[in-house]
Amino acid sequence: MMTSSEKAPVTVHLMRHGEVHNPQRIVYGRLPGYHLSEAGQRMVRLSAEEFKRRADAGANIVHLVCSPLTRTQESAAPIEELLGLTAVHDERVIEADNYFEGLHVTKDELLKHPAHWPHLLNPLRPSWGEPYRQQMTRMVEAIKDAARTAYEKGGAGAEAIIVSHQLPIWMARTSVEGGLLPHDPRKRQTNLASITSLHFDDIFSPGTPRLTYTEPAAELYSGVIQLPGS
After folding, report:
1. How many domains does one find in the chain?
2. Could you report the per-residue pLDDT of 80-116, keeping only the tens digit for each?
3. How far apart are CA 91 and CA 98, in angstroms?
4. Helix, strand, coil tally for the chain in percent (to 5)
5. What Gene3D superfamilies has UniProt attached to this entry (predicted)?
């Protein structure tokens, strides 16, 4: 049992999935059946190997969570293999809902169809999908739960990994850094298979975690497909 003077430091890593095979450049969102490309599989292997390197150096990584979508399950698989963990599926870390899911979206295509126009009126919410604040709330709750579970399993200094998606991870980062929810998607620092780490000094006390960001798969980014809603 902890005493009042003890702290419960925990780290939660938010890993984005790897590149998805999507030659038609569809906004695939929550659609089933979208698998990692060959490059995407190499990306997540590099990130898993980075976690294994940290574990071999003493990191106590004890808990793994992933979105239930195919691409995040496939991205969690090499972590399961190398660290001996079993991924727990959590709907709260799923991709954001998006009206344009299943479409090949270009500016001309959007303007050509009046049915799309009402979904373009309010980028601050945004009007085309799940509100930013709702995404932030569910991600923060999932992160807190993952942190508590890691502490229960591994004690002080334990670490958890959540494999999620570009926009939900960015919303979680925005909650830490106090940034504006509306933003330019091209400026999100959540590259494929990247690791956004939240370092909590004490998960049972108020306080803003320290944030670090790494890209173990950066060598593979040239020429890959990067789309919002991915």
Report:
1. 1
2. 999 999 999 999 999 999 877 877 776 666 667 777 6
3. 16
4. 40, 15, 45
5. Phosphoglycerate mutase-like
